[in-house]
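Q: Convert this sequence to structure tokens.
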Amino acid sequence: MEKINESLLLSEEILADIELNRISFEQICLKVSRLGRLLGDSNVIKWIRFEINWYPVDSEWKFTKESYFIAGKYSGRSYFDNVNKGHYLFTETIPQIESTIESAKMELSVAVDPNVSVSSSNPNQHVYSPPWNWTRRIHLNKVIVQNSEKLAKLKHSIHKYVIETNYELKYWNTIYSIFDNLRENTLAKIWTVYPGWLEILSSIYDNLQSENKTDWSNAIHNCRRVLHELSNILYPPSDEEIDIGWWKKLKLNNEKYIARLKQYIKAKSSSETFTNIVWSSLEYIGDRLDAIYVSSTKWSHVLINNKEEAERYVIYTFILLSDILNL
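A:
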């Protein structure tokens, strides 16, 4: 979370630097490289290194790897050569381009025509004014325009990357903030109602650090255990029977922990819509947790295919706990 906040602030700073032209583009690129480092994005670090240092080419000015050409195209360095009929990249680095523009501007500032008047007392003598610098000025203006266009393309690509990263960071920052508030509020209530939660939470964490499918399944079993233990506290098992329709009755015994939690929600909630939503979530997650549990007890195939699936069920369970405990 701390790195996301730091990265978000840095991306805002870089955008302001680009849009307000506060610092040189080379310095902006160094900040972008730092942004890539904070985000652990090695591709961005390599890309910026090419932009600042050089694009690796061979003796014939051909790129030594296709990935270098792809990076250059992403930067907007691509152009079509009408003579050779092909797509090429300009390979000048950002410092070289900025230096060329600055040098041309300085030379242009002194490339003025001399303000002199030439005459002769000899009426038969032909005198000439000193040569003008207009051809040099045209050349310098052309250099400035061409290199400014190159720099504008590179700025556009950098700005595009930073603003997309900024939007992504804002999204994740919002998600983390919401979940942090949910976590703090829910954990406090869980520990009050069910002190044994800390031990199970530690077990779930250890299971999810593993690369073993059996451990991922155990994380799911612990989610089932939490819901089961919570139902025993909030709505203890009994011989009570409820009508489930079609002239059928359901006994709220120890195994019917999902049904008992639904009864608890029904008794506590004043919103029919909220009750229906949480009931639906309970049925879905409960059926899934039970299926995985039954599968493991019968030594059949493990139903968890990847760690992300296990992590999702842990999150779903945690959100369910929040909904139930905040009634």
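The chain has a mean pLDDT of 82.
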